[in-house]
Design brief:
Oligomer: heterodimer
Largest interface: A-B, 75 and 71 residues
Largest sheet of chain B: none
Shape of chain A: globular
Helix content of chain B: over 70%
Largest sheet of chain A: 9 strands, mixed
Protein name (chain A): Iron(III) transport system substrate-binding protein
Radius of gyration of chain B: 23 Å
Number of strands of chain B: 0
Organism (chain A): Paeniglutamicibacter kerguelensis
Distance between the termini of chain B: 12 Å
Distance between the termini of chain A: 55 Å
Order of helices and strands of chain A: HEHEHEHHEEHEHEHEEHHH
Keywords (chain A): Ion transport, Iron, Iron transport, Signal, Transport
Number of strands of chain A: 9
Helix content of chain A: 40-55%
Strand content of chain B: under 5%
Family (chain A): Belongs to the bacterial solute-binding protein 1 family.
Membrane topology (chain B): Multi-pass membrane protein
Structural class of chain B: mainly alpha
Radius of gyration of chain A: 23 Å
Chain lengths: ~350, ~525
């Protein structure tokens, strides 16, 4: 019996020591203060946008308003899933994504508050969901990057749908597991319906090579492993602006003509209905869609399109209005259905 | 990590010391049992989550999600990976251990350490190195290559420790009875390595089932990478959980297999006198091939990753060293690693104690439940913890406590394997002797058993530390806001093919893992009584 008591005490002691050790050495916030930390003048942002861009936004915002911002980084659907699991207890005040489907997912779970008028006024209707439960904060275009040594200009596909045809077998790559690609499929589903999408995905499974991540897919084209890849535009421009080592043998091609492959994906920002500091959270959204926030986007290294307050995009990019993107209401992008169709097609 | 009886005829006895004597009064054990039960129940949270999700999904959906071609592909990939990699690790691990422990190989002391070194290199860093050296690397072959190079030390370390300590008297007797060196090896030595080989293989196989980063980087799909994909997509929670259920079944099969191979032999050696030193086999003209083989293994498993990391560091120049990001990541990784390792060993102790001193179907069941949890990918354990902790203990959600709890569950078996063998070698007779000399039971326990178990515990802690340093997905989900460990920072950079930016994190991970690997290596020797 004595052994037991001593051991229990020892275990308790060691456990406490272990906890104490992490608390000091990890620099983590004290446990008790975690979820409730977003008191006055503090907000928590769940960020799936580019980390550097979000950090620039946060720094400028804190400088202007004095509101402290804690950022939690992750990817689109990882974070939307987490927010949904957390439900009303979520510590998040603001959620930022790279694509719309994850926003639509949180919206459908009924977790977003209405976006303030001040923000809505700054963002044109085509970059907002019709519901105003969240807003566009940036945009990115679908692009087909190819190796000009392997594909000549006249061999390029007229439509993204052509990529499911037998002549494209083994010639192109994509990153089907990423939110980026799934947003493109969501647009296809919204524009052409379930039957066309199912058929296209079946053809894709036959024809394409899977890579993890758009940049990796582009790198594969550059290295001559595959002829072309369906990705977003900014991977190309970002690499060109840096060293160009993963894109020097690569050309971007835009489908245009309102083709599903000309889809422009809206990056979203929204305020959680459960936010304990909704006012500051709304202010943050107004700030990043405002002139200052959009200028940061334009001058930064993310090479995404600016969408708010009439700010022009980085002049290295093909202007947004020249892309002839199809019109899609971002609130209607059905990501659950997309996952189901992609799972059925054996892509996930 | 076994101990062979010098007297052959009691070698087959169950590991209850004293054979026919009745076990310790149940009262003394009940508290420990209760503790072990509580820990096991706690460790069943993720499994419960998967079962709950499966049970609440309609049966037709389950069938639809599990019986489809994609699951067949994943099953084939995962099984092939285990079937090919585990024997390769056994060959490399046992072969390497035999060369350094039992032959007159020149520089065997150096080689003994060099073969443990790959453990200091996280599997996904290895994968990153190989993928950036040979970009077209993909598929099963690549998966086997990376996994074998990363995990063979898990077999090598325990086997080398056991080999170094086997009583040569048995081998000498066998030789004197006319067996040649090969026959002695296969008929006398190898059977005595059974526990070390089975335990090492189990650890390798469990790693293979739950590894994500290393395989994602080389485009090799297993159940775990597919589950991750499902969770990253629009939460087809049902599909992800169905895949996890299949994974749990695979894990059960492995555990049953290991338990069968391990058997029930007693391994504590209590005898008179000291055991003799083994006679080292003279390699002669096999020395050069042996040296070359070890060199090749070292270059592939340690040389390639180190070369790649250094190459990317040079390419990145001074700009990739961002102390304001690197140092906090280093501090957090160290903090979680040390605290998690300590906590896991403490939690594993009651379980190991029960398993060794009071083996029964019940203690086996408890042990089993902990292994099952650890075979689940971090993402499943992470999501289970998100779901459970935000509902039941919202006050500590996203705190260091929850993350540490997840680490304990994920890595408990690593501590358990070591503690169990450590306890098995601490003969209960010694504790009883101390008591008969007038020590109180608790003093006898602390002075004798706990002290004898300490080296094994240190080995277990080192193994857990290494695992925490490498953990990605549970950390991402559960860590306090603003947390960035070396692994998550490395992963974020390397996913964006910023190989130069990722390199400092890779280097730091290797640097903090190296002393732990050394400790593990040393302690496994000590635990083996050298």
């Amino acid at each position: 019996m004595k052994i037991r008591k001593n051991m229990l005490a020892g275990i308790a002691l060691a456990a406490t020591a272990a906890m104490g050790l992490t608390a000091c050495s990890s620099g983590a916030p004290a446990p008790a203060s975690t979820p409730a930390a977003s008191g006055a003048g503090e907000i928590t942002v769940y960020n799936a946008q580019h980390e550097s861009l979000a950090q620039e936004w946060v720094d400028a915002f804190t400088k202007e308003t004095g509101i402290k911002v804690t950022v939690r980084n992750g990817s689109d659907t990882e974070m939307s899933n987490q927010i949904i699991q957390e439900g009303k207890a979520s510590p998040a005040d603001v959620f930022l994504t790279e694509n719309s489907p994850a926003m639509a997912q949180v919206e459908n779970a009924g977790l977003f508050a209405d976006v303030d008028e001040a923000t809505i006024d700054q963002v044109p209707a085509e970059f907002r969901p019709s519901t105003n439960k969240w807003t566009g904060i940036a945009a990115r275009s679908t692009v087909f990057v190819y190796d000009p040594a392997k594909i000549t200009a006249d061999q390029l596909p007229k439509s993204m749908l052509d990529l499911a045809e037998p002549e494209w077998k083994g010639k192109w790559a994509a990153s089907p597991t990423g939110a980026d690609f799934q947003a493109i499929v969501a647009a296809l589903l919204e524009l052409k319906g379930e039957e066309v999408t199912t058929e296209w995905l079946a053809g894709m499974k036959e024809n394409f090579t899977a890579y993890k991540g758009n940049s990796t897919a582009m790198k594969a084209v550059n290295a001559g492993e595959v002829d072309a890849a369906l990705i977003y535009h900014y991977y190309y421009y970002g690499d060109q602006a840096a060293t160009g080592e993963n894109s020097k043998n690569v050309q971007p091609y835009y489908f245009k003509n309102q083709d599903p492959g000309a889809f422009v994906s809206v990056s979203g920002g929204g305020v959680l209905a459960s936010s304990k500091n909704a006012e500051a959270a709304q202010k943050f959204l107004t700030f990043i869609t405002g002139k200052a926030g959009q200028e940061i986007l334009k001058n930064g290294t993310s090479f995404e399109y600016a969408v708010g307050s009439g700010v022009a995009s980085n002049d290295k990019l093909v202007p947004l209005k020249d892309l002839q993107a199809p019109t899609v209401d971002p609130a209607k992008l059905n990501s659950a259905k997309v996952t189901e169709l992609m799972t059925n097609a054996g892509l996930l | 990590m076994s101990k062979t009886q010098t007297v052959p005829d009691i070698q087959r006895e169950p590991n209850v010391a004293g054979g026919g004597k009745s076990p310790r009064p149940p009262l003394g054990v009940s508290g420990l049992s209760l503790l072990a039960i509580l820990i096991s129940l706690f460790s069943l949270i993720p499994l419960g989550y998967v079962i709950y999700m499966t049970a609440t999904t309609e049966w037709s959906t389950v069938v639809e999600l599990v019986i489809r071609p994609r699951v067949g592909e994943l099953l084939l990939n995962t099984i092939m990976l285990v079937v090919v990699t585990v024997p390769l690790c056994l060959v490399l691990g046992v072969g390497g251990a035999w060369l350094v422990e039992r032959t007159n190989l020149r520089g065997y002391r150096w080689w003994a350490l060099a073969l443990a070194a790959p453990l200091a290199i996280p599997a996904f860093v290895n994968s990153y190195a190989w993928a950036s050296t040979i970009p077209s690397l993909a598929g099963l072959g690549a998966g086997v290559l990376i996994a074998t190079l990363s995990y063979f030390p898990l077999v090598y370390i325990p086997v080398a420790a056991t080999l170094g300590r086997l009583d040569p008297a048995i081998e000498q007797s066998a030789a004197s009875l006319g067996l040649g060196p090969w026959a002695v090896f296969f008929r006398v030595v190898l059977p005595q390595l059974r526990i070390a080989m089975a335990g090492g293989s189990l650890l390798v196989a469990l790693h293979l089932l739950s590894e994500y980063g290393a395989f994602a980087m080389i485009r090799f799909d297993t159940f775990t990478t597919a589950i991750m994909v499902q969770f990253q997509s629009t939460f087809n929670g049902a599909a992800g959980n169905m895949l996890a259920s299949v994974l749990v079944l695979l894990c059960m099969l492995l555990l049953l297999g290991e338990a069968k191979v391990r058997g029930n032999a007693r391994y504590a050696r209590v005898g008179f006198g000291a055991q003799g030193l083994a006679i080292r086999f003279k390699l002669g003209r096999y020395e050069l091939p042996a040296q070359l083989a070890l060199l090749a293994l070292f270059v592939l498993s340690v040389g390639v990753p180190l070369y790649s990391v250094v190459r990317w560091l040079v390419a990145g120049g001074a700009g990739v060293w961002e102390p304001e990001r690197l140092l906090p990541a280093l501090a957090q990784t160290m903090g979680y690693g040390l605290a998690g390792a300590l906590l896991t060993c403490v939690v594993a102790f009651p379980m190991a104690f029960l398993a060794v001193r009071h083996p029964s179907w019940f203690s086996k069941l408890l042990e089993l439940s902990n292994y099952v949890t650890s075979s689940m990918p971090g993402i499943v354990v992470g999501l289970a913890f998100v779901t459970v902790s935000i509902r039941l203990v919202p006050g500590i959600y996203q705190s260091a406590y929850v993350l540490l709890a997840a680490y304990v569950l994920l890595f408990l078996p690593r501590a358990l394997v070591n503690l169990r063998s450590g306890l098995a070698q601490a003969p209960r007779e010694l504790e009883e002797a101390a008591r008969s000399l007038g020590r109180s039971p608790s003093v006898a326990f602390f002075r004798v058993t706990l002290r004898l178990t300490a080296p094994a515990a240190a080995g277990g802690a080192a193994l857990v530390f290494l695992a925490i340093v490498n953990e990605l997905t549970a950390t991402l989900l559960l860590a306090p806001n603003g947390t960035r460990t070396l692994a998550t920072a490395f992963w974020a950079k390397s996913s964006e093919i910023d190989y130069s930016g990722a390199a400092p994190y890779a280097l730091l991970m290797i640097l903090i893992s190296a002393p732990m690997t050394y400790l593990l290596f040393q302690q496994s020797k000590k635990a083996a009584g050298q």
